[in-house]
Amino acid sequence: MSPGLNSIFLEEIRSQPEVLARRLESGWAEVEEVAARIRRQRPAALLLAARGSSDHAATYAKYLFEIRNRLPVALAAPSAFTLYGSPPRLEGLAVLAISQSGASPDVAAVVEEARRQSRPAFAIVNERASRLGRAADVVVPMGAGRERSVPASKTYTASLLCLAMLSWALDPDPDFRAAIESLPCAAAAALESDAGRLAEAVEGRRLAAIGRGYHLATAQEVALKVTETSYLLAEARSVADFMHGPIAAVDPELPVLLLEAAGPARADMRRLGRRLEEQGVCVLRIGDRLRPEARSVRVRTGLPEALTPIPFAVAGQLFGEPLPYVKTT
Amino acid sequence: MSPGLNSIFLEEIRSQPEVLARRLESGWAEVEEVAARIRRQRPAALLLAARGSSDHAATYAKYLFEIRNRLPVALAAPSAFTLYGSPPRLEGLAVLAISQSGASPDVAAVVEEARRQSRPAFAIVNERASRLGRAADVVVPMGAGRERSVPASKTYTASLLCLAMLSWALDPDPDFRAAIESLPCAAAAALESDAGRLAEAVEGRRLAAIGRGYHLATAQEVALKVTETSYLLAEARSVADFMHGPIAAVDPELPVLLLEAAGPARADMRRLGRRLEEQGVCVLRIGDRLRPEARSVRVRTGLPEALTPIPFAVAGQLFGEPLPYVKTT
Predict the structure, then answer these.
(1) How large is the ipTM?
(2) CA distance B25 to chain A (A)
(3) Which domains does chain B have, with CATH numbers?
């Protein structure tokens, strides 16, 4: 990534409190319409279609809707719809697509097929006038403004916000609503977290990013960001799958980033961290209850775990952003 | 992995034609019972629960059931059932668990929850007398015999075979049945493929394994195998997602293994391969229509693409198996 591009990326990272605040001012009507339609239809499951960063937003949606709304979520395999020309029967399902550009033919094909099968199909899109925007029954606009940087930042957190708003609209609860309204502040606090300094400890060309539950999505997103900005090979895993095999690949030359949110997964994450440190591994941490130390960044959120993926993603972007300089200086 | 363990792994890899043949002799009754129950219930989607290698078998099942049977498949997020204690409502769904040991508490919890919600729950298991084996309505036994090596080999291909048999039982077709019956031969041919020699080209500690459609599962399985046997960091991606970002991380020091089966995804795989070679990347290939060359292994299968993941997995195991020697000599 050229230095010029990098400064646009940083500008977009910094704009997120404002983007989230703007979205909260004007975006509830579409979300409530999607929620009303889903409540009426009572689908057995929601089929999500997405690619790239939006696919990580879909991972977040899976945990959010399954845990908070008890609504099963399946992630679409777009090639069944496009390459193989043999899409699944969608009876009893509703479709939700997530895309920044709305131009990905794979993602639009899933929504178009839903329409062909007379199934409801919704889309969270930044570019409303796109193929996907035109194909969906209801469009929830990300409202993130034009994104110029190739590594996505503000459209990722905006899509997470749209998903959180939809989860609220499906099962309203005043505490959750208040927490959603505080997300711009939480994103601003994450910008102050100096997560960038963690990157100084990364040597070599490899990284593992580990989360669980809600933060599997954060691990995926940070791993992709670091890959795009810094040409590292970064692997994202849930702590459970990591312990099941890839832990064999760990050595002192493979730094491991732990996404350690307060919540039920925290004990597992801490156990893994201690085990890795005993093996001499460079363990980096982003969390909301950590004591700040050389390799730990604390993001003060005051949020329920279900919403922490938004400020954690901001901290993860700061972690990814300066890596090119670490490598070239 | 110690040399002693490695020879057990190799013995189990070599036993696969016999394991598959034995499974075909005696395993149809249970598969037909599961298929009959699914046909009766007509679930909106099948929820799959699995961990580790079995999770890759679940990826295979997603493509197989969605494309061949047009039955939507969701992969369970076990932590919703265990850690968060807030499992999704399973109305309209059926559950299928895949596990070698049947002892994974995460996987068993999904099946037990299905029973609590009065939903049908089936399991493909190697150890019948396990927690999972006892919890399921119908057990399809892998029949792979005891597996002593930690990197799974024969239980992976046996679970793929059980899934293919189930797909046939859901939508019988004599050609597909005949192809299933030829799988032991195809596995034997893969054992003759000298895929191990590809490993000689791998230097360093990183690898990317790329597939698409049916062979996303193969890429995941080869990446995990290589990680377990050789302490590499190996990343598995679909070609579509790889082009969407991680291709930025590619350089001459990151070898890329392409799983190149004849089928609709092949054109994309070939385009990616050419682009990588132009960039000076070390590209390795396993395929069924390749001209054998220094970095290409041909697996003669004579199979429809939907069944090639079984012999390709065998070739992938051979590729992973000798890597420790490559590194230590």
Answers:
(1) 0.93
(2) 31
(3) 3-173 (3.40.50.10490), 189-321 (3.40.50.10490)
